[in-house]
Amino acid sequence: MVAASGSTDAPGPAPAAPGHAFGQRTLIEWCLLLAAVLALVVLAARQGWVERADLAAYDIAISAQHHPVRGDIIIVGINDASITAIGRWPWRRAVLAQLVERIAAGRPRVIGVDVILSERDTRYPQDDAVLARSLAQAGNVVLPVVAESGPAGLLVRYPLAGLGAAVGHINMVVDTDGVARQVYLSEGPHPVAAAGVPHLAAVMAAFGRAGEPPGIARQEPARITEANGWERSGRLRIPYAGPPGTFARVSARDVLDGRANPAIFAGKAVLIGALATGMGDVLPTPV
């Protein structure tokens, strides 16, 4: 039967409900937003934005902390005044021996010597034996270990055999922005469990004390093995106590010439290190 209007067309589909169309549009918008967020996250990771933000937050937190100055740590600095009085670096090892003896007379808990002693003294070969006797007599000295490149990858350079001291590595981790914030508590050829060297600071902290040194419980236990076979474990963010000058200092010159009373070292952790202009490595820190 033909409709009264004379039209023979079949009826078209019913229009979509307004709510259904709105729901589809909202879903598309959320998908686009999610894709944009994911792309931004990937870009941020590639550009290092996330890492830089994390480092900046750490720097702010460290700077905002106010630690009480510890009285059980003292630095014996080989400073400009010491170089002027005693002579240019490197000093004779007999002088280092005398410095250790003067400090040891005050009965410190431990003495760290941040001076590389991996090669024999060719100018004064007899001085090696003099230094060895002083270290052995003190009985609580820690010497640094360094890593150097060799034909088979990184190699550990230990202090001279016969010096009779504990050892610890002194490597620092420099972040992508050039600031030193971290150390690994153990480093060495793979497997580090068999050939690893603990950090000098950890060795000093544990010297003469039972249990773990402070801060060890906050380390990250994951191990990293590099392509050259060098392995690191126990990453630790350094809880900096404060800016330079936070810890007590005394000039090596004052120790050697008797101006510094050895009693100031009693029971303390003493670190002998370079403070003179142009000596040693200077790394930026968060404080």
UniProtKB/TrEMBL annotation:
It comes from the Bacteria. The chain crosses the membrane at residues 27-45. This is Signal transduction histidine kinase. GO terms for molecular function: kinase activity. Residues 50-287 form the CHASE2 domain. InterPro entries: CHASE2. The keyword Cell membrane does not apply. Coiled coil: none annotated. SMART domains: CHASE2. Keywords: Kinase, Membrane, Transferase, Transmembrane, Transmembrane helix.
